[in-house]
Amino acid sequence: MDKTSKSIIKKYMPMIIVSIFIGFLFFRNNAAYRVVQIIKPVLLAFAIAYILDSVVKFLDIRIKLSRNFSIFITYFLILSLISVLISFLVPIIIENFNSVFNFVVNGNFDFNRTLNNLKNNSESELIRNILNYLTDSTGELNSELSDQIYNGLKYISEYGAGLVRNAGESILAGFTSFIISIYMLIEKEDLLNRTRKFTRAYFEKERAEKILHAFREGNKIFKSYFNGKILDSFIVGIIIIILFTIFGVPYAALMGAILGFTNMIPYFGPFFGSIPVIIVALFIDPPKALVALIIILAVQQLDGNILDPKIVGRAIGVSPFWVITAVTVGAVAAGPLGMILGVPTVVLIKTLIEEDIEEKLEKKGIEMDLKEES
Fold it and tell me: pLDDT tens, 222-280?
């Protein structure tokens, strides 16, 4: 085989392998699902290691601990936090969920009764007229709404029961991923060096450097986003649980956990999270629904103006247009996970494209201002 043939094979072999792999995934029934299930523990381990690496680096570089000892301290702290949550918060959340489920199942969920209570206690003529219209036109709305909420809670309950049934398998998979993540952090530099070697071996120099640059940018953007957003959402959830408990909002722990989790989704998350909170409070104790709404709005103002900018930082720094676009496209592509991953993904793509545009313009000797009149 001559040098030209070898060069062609070396150049296009990665593309051929990737094409075959993609074809295997898309043209075989359930192939993608099987592949994901096989590598799921490794993917979960990578996610754990990726998130905890920032803590390890902080202890290693800032506190001047050895890397192995930093990894030990990090996992000790995480296990301690998980133990505290399981011991105190999780049982309360489960109890709250069971109470809400029983509230609906036992027939206490009466939409018309709640509207009538609001109407009788309202001093506004406009609000009373609106509530009169709703009570006159509801008809079967109460039973339909109750059925929908019941079915939703039933689905969640059955899903949770399925998780409990598969608890042994889930615990084993989670434990395996946890152990793998420790070794990933211990061997981080070796794994990174092997990845760099592979990239430089199978791609031309300029292409390889661009690929490695894209990974470096992606690492910076994703870590900045996720580390900050997780901490921010955790703080928001805790603040809401405390305020809900103080002001007597029903099922404070469960509702605070929901709002903290949905806070991971930019812009839309607080809205999605507030819907079940307001609905539950409205039917159990209507005045508390207004209290819950006020607390949610106040905490979101605190988060949007102080916590999020300080914790997440300006590294993500894109306009609302890009954020909303990212969340919308992510939701269509991959559901809730896509909504969470959408923002850093779009930021990375936008950053790389802008860098490429600037490079091409610079080579052509063209200077352009984004503020030029159209």
Answer: 988 888 888 899 999 999 999 999 999 888 888 888 899 899 888 888 888 888 888 77
Over residues 153-167, the pLDDT tens digits come to: 555 555 555 555 555
The domain locations on the chain are 203-364
SS3 track for the chain:
CCHHHHHHHHHHHHHHHHHHHHHHHHHCCCHHHHHHHHHHHHHHHHHHHHHHHHHHHHHHHHCCCCHHHHHHHHHHHHHHHHHHHHHHHHHHHHHHHHHHHHHHHCCCCCHHHHHHHHHHHCCCHHHHHHHHHHHHHHCCHHHHHHHHHHHHHHHHHHHHHHHHHCHHHHHHHHHHHHHHHHHHHHCHHHHHHHHHHHHHHHCCHHHHHHHHHHHHHHHHHHHHHHHHHHHHHHHHHHHHHHHHHHCCCCCHHHHHHHHHHHCCCCCHHHHHHHHHHHHHHHHHCHHHHHHHHHHHHHHHHHHHHHHHHHHCCCCCCCCHHHHHHHHHHHHHHHHHHHHHHHHHHHHHHHHHHHHHHHHHHHHHCCCCCCCCCC
What global pTM score does this model have? Answer: 0.70
